[in-house]
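dumping this here so i dont lose it
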């Protein structure tokens, strides 16, 4: 064997070891709180155990998975979803043409902006494939009785026939999340005892019979349905003289109406309708008054705030990449005075005064300790702002591709750095539930994980390793902003500015 070949073999072996190490680390992080094992997901999908039709219509006898052409027609609960998405696409296209009148937009490579083909939602060649299951009991603060949520995440996949009669699977840029309550209050164990939040948490942490808790076994069978969330890469536009490279994602939510037996178009949680608020003086005043009230400001700081629906939007377009500093691509831009051309909703003095008032009332602010912290939380508390932060494009969970030739390799990155970084916090909450304690539901900023005193993420990209988000020192004072003082880098790395960012940088190797 030549020296060059030996080096190549050694490099491949080394990289293979690194890949295996990352896969093992990610598996350890998600154990007990997310299902990313490709073999198990394949079994659950192909056995029709946790497919969308089975969960929405358990009385169906068909063992063949439904294509999108049939699914949206044969399941009446879904009748509003495709028309609502169609309408959003029409609005998106109209806005794009108005913004860039010199560019073309449509399906196919011949257009300046290439659209997602909506025909994929009415095709006999596509279906939604189970790509992951995520325990979100950390969201039990929204509805304590249901103990949080379980999210079944499906990836739209096209199956093309080959010359040999086989099928080739191609994953398309759309996820369909069926969100279910983590607990049915009517559920009982083998001894007839009611299932508690502690029981649910223990089953997940111990990987014991968690499947039996998904879906109602007693009529009405829809008792655990909560909502559907869709995320579509609506368009991709290469860099041009008018804009940088852009990839836009469309987020929609459909809340289940038990009376009407349908998923109805709904507002997105905490997705502030920026343009509508800025255009309405009454909404502007009401939103400022509501959010800066000490109790609401505390929840805002903790990341558990639930903004009233009258301030929210029913759709969100997420442009990526959005950068680290405030810009018109981010959902909160224009809400703070000095951003954009308008007056904004909040002034620096408004925020400083509200923080002082909260402190006077004994509220301990964990994250939002400055105007910059308020601005960042206002952005990442929204669906769009969160999906722009440390995501894979506009996805946080693109899912496991168990249809790949080597599915074990595809488990390396089934989810984003933000997702993996949040696993310690989520596990801590499940552990508290399992012990019969009241969990701490707070969370940090989307850019940096809340480690809960653990060291598992130290030195990784998820916390303070290469590529992690960090706090830049102020050019004048030489200190970090009070909201980001802990955002340092691991030994051997230094926080360096990325693009035009002023407060937030990235951890890179020291150059001098």
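and the seq i came up w/
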């Amino acid at each position: 064997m030549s020296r060059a070949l030996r080096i190549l073999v050694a490099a491949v072996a080394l990289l293979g070891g690194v890949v295996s190490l990352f896969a093992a680390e990610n598996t350890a992080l998600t154990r007990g709180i997310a299902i990313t094992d490709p073999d198990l997901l394949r079994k659950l999908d192909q056995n029709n155990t946790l497919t969308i039709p089975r969960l929405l219509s358990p009385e169906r006898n068909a063992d063949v998975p439904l294509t999108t052409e049939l699914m949206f027609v044969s399941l009446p609960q879904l009748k509003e979803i495709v028309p609502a998405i169609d309408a959003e696409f029409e609005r998106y296209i109209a806005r794009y043409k108005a913004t860039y009148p010199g560019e073309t937009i449509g399906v196919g490579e011949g257009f300046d902006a290439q659209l997602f083909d909506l025909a994929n939602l009415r095709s006999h060649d596509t279906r939604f494939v189970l790509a992951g299951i995520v325990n979100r009991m950390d969201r039990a603060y929204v509805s304590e009785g249901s103990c949080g949520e379980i999210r079944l995440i499906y990836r739209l996949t096209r199956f093309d026939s080959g010359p040999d009669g086989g099928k080739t699977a191609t994953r398309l840029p759309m996820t369909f999340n069926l969100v279910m309550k983590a607990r049915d209050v009517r559920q009982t164990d083998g001894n007839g005892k009611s299932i508690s939040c502690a029981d649910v948490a223990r089953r997940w942490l111990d990987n014991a019979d968690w499947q039996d808790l998904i879906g109602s076994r007693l009529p009405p069978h829809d008792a655990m349905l909560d909502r559907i969330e869709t995320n579509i890469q609506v368009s991709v536009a290469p860099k041009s003289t008018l804009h940088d490279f852009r990839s836009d994602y469309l987020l929609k939510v459909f809340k289940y109406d038990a009376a009407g037996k349908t998923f109805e178009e709904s507002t997105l949680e905490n997705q502030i309708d920026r343009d509508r608020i800025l255009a309405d003086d009454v909404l502007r005043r009401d939103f400022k008054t509501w959010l800066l009230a000490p109790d609401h400001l505390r929840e805002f700081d903790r990341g558990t705030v639930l903004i009233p629906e009258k301030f929210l939007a029913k759709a969100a377009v997420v442009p990526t990449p959005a950068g680290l500093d405030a810009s018109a691509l981010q959902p909160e831009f224009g809400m703070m005075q000095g951003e954009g051309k308008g007056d904004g909703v909040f002034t620096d003095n408004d925020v400083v005064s509200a923080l002082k008032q909260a402190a006077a009332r004994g509220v301990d602010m964990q994250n939002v300790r400055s105007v910059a912290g308020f601005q960042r939380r206002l952005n990442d508390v929204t669906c769009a702002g969160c999906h722009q932060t440390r995501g894979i494009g506009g996805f946080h969970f693109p899912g496991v591709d168990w249809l790949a030739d080597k599915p074990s390799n595809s488990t390396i990155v089934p989810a984003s750095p933000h997702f993996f970084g949040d696993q310690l916090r989520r596990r801590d909450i499940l552990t508290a539930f399992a012990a019969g304690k009241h969990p701490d539901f707070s969370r940090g900023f989307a850019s940096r994980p809340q480690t809960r005193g653990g060291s598992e993420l130290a030195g990784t990209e998820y916390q303070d390793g290469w590529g992690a988000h960090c706090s830049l020192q102020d050019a004048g004072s030489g200190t970090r902003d009070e909201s980001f003082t802990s955002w340092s880098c691991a030994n051997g790395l230094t926080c360096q500015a990325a693009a035009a960012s002023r407060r937030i940088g990235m951890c890179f190797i020291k150059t001098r």
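The longest helix spans residues 3-30.
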